[in-house]
Amino acid sequence: MNINSMRYCLRQSVVALFRNLWLALVTSGIIAISLAILGGFLLLAVNASQFMRNIESNVEISVFLEDGADPAALQAQLGGHEDVSGYTFVPKDEGLEEFGRTMGDRVMLVGLEGENNPLPDMFKVRAHRAEAVPALAAEIQSYSGVEVTDFGEELVARVGQVTGWLNTLFLIVSGLLALGAIFLIVTTIRLSVLARQDEVGIMKYLGASNWFIRFPFLLEGMVMGWTGTVAAAAALSFVYFRVAYSLQTEALAFFLQPVTDMARILPIFVGLLLMGTLMGGVGSYVSVRKFLRV
Predict the structure, then answer these.
(1) Which residue, 184, 259, 149, is CA-closest to 28?
(2) What is the bridge-based pairing of β-strands 122-127 and 60-65?
(3) Domain with residues 60-151, CATH architecture
(4) 182 CB contacts (<8 Å, ≥6 apart)?
(5) Cα torsion for 268, 270, 274, 277, to the nearest 10°?
(6) Among the entry's GO cellular component annotations, what is one (predicted)?
């Protein structure tokens, strides 16, 4: 395609957009709403992943030692393990104090100090990855001097299940929203093509190539997709960061820490921009193709 052909295609795209300005604006607005919802789900997915990661990072393995076991020997083994991110040794006296604070009644500890302390020494072990916890706990259980290990097996399994469900849900919803946006673009471009169907037929019979005919429509779809995406990204970023920063000032932020790291947020908006533009081109390609069969 030479320079003159490119100029013609660009001119035809601009003329068609202004000729159907209201329809183009409405379509761009609907695309913006669809992509804003899609982007909202993606941001929700990022925050849900962060929330699950916070839960996983707080999963600890309680390692109870046998009477007379040497904590230093076990400490050396834990310190050299690749799956162990950290550990804390809790002597039986500290464990008893912690138990009393948890129960809120120190009277029940009377007579249990010293040699009468029924609690064993223990280690609280943290793993790099939550999925490594079961295998790590089983391995530590086999160490000399370890009586029993406990890590809340049901919690770890439930966290994994919930994470899998959320990922599947976000994938399905994102796909449906993307298909809906493509359908809107296809419908709009098809209306434009119908209005110029005779022109397309004449150009085809005169020997114009399919790409020469198709290119203006591709540009129309890409412009509408890009415009809608920019509007969606601007509105979504404004709302998201306002909500995120307001949550950080509330007590709720202790449990839910919104992701504000641009290294994780920016790819979502860039992806939406590319997706919207690409969907515009794909929608145009699909809608024009049937009218080129003459």
Answers:
(1) 184
(2) antiparallel
(3) 2-Layer Sandwich (3.30)
(4) 279, 282, 283, 286
(5) 100
(6) plasma membrane
Dist. CA 122–CA 149, nearest whole Å: 9
The rounded average pLDDT for each run of 10 residues, N- to C-terminus, in the chain (294 residues) is 66 72 78 83 81 71 82 83 83 66 55 62 81 82 85 69 77 77 69 70 76 79 85 90 74 62 85 83 75 64
3-class DSSP state of 255: coil
Residue with tokens 């790819």: 267
Phi and psi at residue 269, to the nearest 5°:
-70, -40
This prediction's pTM: 0.64
> In which residue are the tokens 């010293």 written?
114
Tokens standing for residue 101: 């604070």
Q: Check: CB of residue 188 under 8 Å from CB of residue 23.
A: yes
What residue ranges of the chain are covered by domains with CATH 3.30.70.3040?
60-151
7 exposure class (CB count in 10 Å sphere: 0-12, 13-18, 19+): exposed
3-state secondary structure of 203: helix
